[in-house]
C-alpha cells in the first residue's frame, strides 16, 4: 500500500518560515520524482517545486529564492523549506510522487500566512 504523508504545516506571520515534510512508504522512493503542489481556496492546484530522482530541482517563479526542495532517500522523505512566507502562499500543500505513468498524492497539509 502506497502512502504519502505530509506534515509541518501551520500558521505563521508574513516573513516567517515553515518546513514541510513528505514521508513515503510502499514505493521504491529513490526512483520517483517528487513534486510539491499547492491549492488555495477557489484556485486551481499549482506546481510549486520538483525534485527529480537524480536530485535536480526546479521551482515555480513565485517561490524561487524563497523555497528549497530537498530529499533524503534513506528516510524516504522530501522536504520543502519555505522562507519569507507571504499571505499569498496560504494554501493546502500536497506532495506527489511520479514515475512514468504512476502518480501518487498525499492528503495535504495546510499552510496559513497572516499579514
Explained architecture:
With 115 residues, the chain is mainly beta. Strands 2, 4, 5, 6, 9, 10 and 11 form a 7-stranded mixed β-sheet that branches. A hairpin with a 5-residue loop joins β5 and β6.
Could you give a quick summary of the protein structure above?
The chain is mainly β.
Supply the key terms.
single chain, 115 residues, mainly beta, 7-stranded mixed β-sheet, 4-stranded antiparallel β-sheet, 11 strands, 0% helix, 56% strand, globular
Compressed to H and E, one letter per element, the order equals: EEEEEEEEEEE
How much helix, percentage-wise, in residues? under 10%
Q: Give the strand content.
A: over 45%
Low-pLDDT residue intervals, each spanning 5 or more residues: none
Output the structural class: mainly beta
Topology record:
Layout: E1 3-7, E2 10-13, E3 18-25, E4 33-39, E5 46-51, E6 57-59, E7 67-72, E8 77-82, E9 91-99, E10 102-105, E11 109-114
